[in-house]
Known about the structure:
Blueprint: H1 2-22, E1 25-35, E2 38-49, E3 55-63, E4 69-74, E5 94-98, E6 101-106, E7 122-131, E8 137-138, E9 141-142, E10 148-151, E11 161-164, E12 169-170
Parallel strand pairs: 1-11
Antiparallel strand pairs: 1-2, 2-7, 3-6, 3-9, 3-10, 4-7, 5-6, 8-12
Amino acid sequence: MKKLTLSCILLMLIIAATYRARGQTYEATIQLSTSNDTLNVDLFLRTTSGTSANLGDATLTVSYDNNVLTWRGKNPNFDGRWDNGNSTSYNDLTSSNVPPRASLDVTKTNSGSGLDIPTTATRVGRIIFTFTDPTATVFIAWNTLFTAIYDFNGNSITPSLTFTNPPGIALPIQMASFSA
Length: 180
């Protein structure tokens, strides 16, 4: 019985490793920039190996320090290709906030077949925050517990993602004279 159980476990591990080696893999990255009292948080996706899937529904969630930052929503001028302004396969890109988490939410429509995830980093959208502490170093990181990404057929691609977090950034010099 022990040999059979061990053999089954070994077989499952080999199958899982083979599937992962032949399957698609993706990377999710965050890029930070500042402008006056605003922190811009750009979220990107790219295919790193295999044939790209067409993006379906996705919730890309970041964690932030709500003692340092105040969520303001998304900047629609930076909505990516998976938005209704760029494809009829998607609804309007939205952003939601439950401190200390904020997300960009992609929802597919029932028309079309969606757009692929390119091999170059492609912006999903931009979340904006304002600073509440001008002396702080800002840290933004992926919240993998609340991030879920699916292909257009409804299959989860989240397990195939590598999440890359940005380094912390100090606020701009001009913010030193900021008062709330």
